[in-house]
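Weekly sync, protein design subgroup
Attendees: M.S., D.O., the rotation student, P.L. (late)

Item 1: inverse folding check
M.S. brought a backbone from last month's batch and wanted to see whether the design step gives back something sensible before we order anything. D.O. pointed out we never logged the input encoding, so this time it goes straight into the notes. Structure tokens as presented (173 positions):
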């Protein structure tokens, strides 16, 4: 998992709003640093890191809700949806890895007459696990397509510029 970007210039004597804006600016940069990998389906670890970055951005918006107001709420909802899509994708990646490990750990079929699992339809548990793996892989392709589509929509709708505006909004301190 990637480490959170450090937030420079936090000032203990500054107002909550000033520090909240500084934190938000860093979290926006952290999130959008993953823009190049969002369309790349095979970047499983980086896509998981993008989910964590989305979570950090979302929690920043939620934590400082009084500072960012209704505009922050709308951005939170958009980031939450992206985070959930990325989470579903990651869950699929975990299932795929577990299935691959289970298949690799199976003993070779006994071709000398018996079978290692007579209660499975083919007599070979690898057959069922392989079928499950193929279904998960097909589902993963659809889930990644949903992530890429949501990311494109968020960018088309101007979420990043909306967030940047929040991080630079004038303050009434």
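Designed sequence read out in the meeting:
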């Amino acid at each position: 998992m990637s480490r959170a970007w450090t937030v420079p210039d936090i000032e203990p004597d500054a107002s909550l709003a000033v520090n909240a804006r500084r934190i938000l600016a860093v979290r926006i940069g952290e999130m959008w640093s993953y823009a190049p990998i969002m369309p790349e389906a095979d970047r499983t670890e980086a896509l998981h890191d993008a989910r964590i970055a989305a979570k950090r951005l979302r929690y920043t918006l939620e934590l400082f809700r009084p500072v960012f107001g209704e505009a922050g709420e709308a951005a939170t909802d958009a980031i939450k949806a992206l985070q959930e899509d990325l989470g579903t994708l990651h869950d699929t990646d975990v299932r795929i890895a577990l299935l691959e490990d289970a298949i690799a750990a199976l003993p070779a079929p006994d071709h000398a007459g018996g079978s290692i699992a007579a209660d499975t339809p083919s007599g070979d548990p690898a057959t069922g696990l392989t079928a499950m793996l193929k279904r998960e892989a097909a589902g993963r392709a659809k889930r990644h397509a949903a992530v890429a589509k949501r990311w494109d929509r968020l960018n088309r709708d101007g979420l990043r510029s909306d967030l940047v505006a929040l991080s630079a909004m004038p303050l009434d301190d």
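Discussion: The two ends are 37 Å apart (CA to CA). The first helix runs from residue 16 to 32.
Action: P.L. to compare against the previous round before Friday.
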